[in-house]
Design a protein that fits this description.
By secondary structure, this protein is mostly helical. It is built from nine helices and no strands.
């Protein structure tokens, strides 16, 4: 099926917390492959998917192509999604996105850009705060380039999407102990390279 998406306009969650998950009735229709319901699914989750992929792979046309693939995989797999299971729809979908991103990195070299590229400056910001945000983005870029792909993926899921260690393990298809180690090492590396800038971000 063709999926129309607006583009990689990833944003941080608002201060009040992330948007609510899609309602159960719409998800039930998605499971039955109702295309109108799935369009609502895409509209609700395209931003976090673009943000996740952009943080892992850098922005560019490859992100939009991969996002299409992620939603196609989700469409095909929707009948198997357990509405009463532990995974939220967003967690389940970002698991698909994470595996697609890691697979893409293994298939070919994709330029990695700043983790902050996927985050826009908050409304009402001043030129000074925008400049500080850009400088922080560049610092995070330099530091994150030192991370192996698997550590970067774990860091993105933990720091930007609020995944627990158990959820990271499921998303990356690894034991929880490995997920904990990768997340810990990624955070320690970022702290070592960025110091107070990483703690205050």
């Amino acid at each position: 099926m063709a999926i129309a998406m607006k583009g990689p306009e990833g944003e941080r969650a608002p201060a009040g917390g992330p948007p609510a998950e899609l309602d159960r009735a719409t998800l039930l229709r998605c499971k039955a492959h109702d295309r109108q319901a799935f369009r609502a699914f895409v509209v609700r989750y395209e931003r976090p998917v673009f943000a996740c992929l952009s943080r892992m792979l850098g922005r560019g046309p490859h992100v939009e192509d991969l996002a299409q693939e992620v939603f196609l995989r989700a469409y095909r797999a929707m009948p198997t999604f357990d509405l009463d299971g532990a995974a939220k729809p967003s967690t389940w979908l970002l698991t698909i996105a994470t595996r697609a991103a890691l697979d893409a990195r293994k298939r070919r070299v994709i330029p990695i850009r700043p983790l902050e590229d996927a985050s826009h400056v908050a409304h009402g910001s001043t030129p000074e705060t925008e400049r500080a945000q850009r400088e922080l983005g560049r610092a995070i870029d330099r530091a994150s380039e030192a991370l192996p792909d698997e550590q970067r993926a774990a860091l993105v899921l933990a720091e930007y999407h609020g995944f627990s260690i158990a959820e990271i393990a499921v998303a990356m298809g690894i034991p929880e102990a490995t997920a904990k180690t990768r997340t810990f090492r990624a955070r320690e590396r970022m702290r070592a390279l960025l110091g107070d800038e990483w703690r205050a971000r």
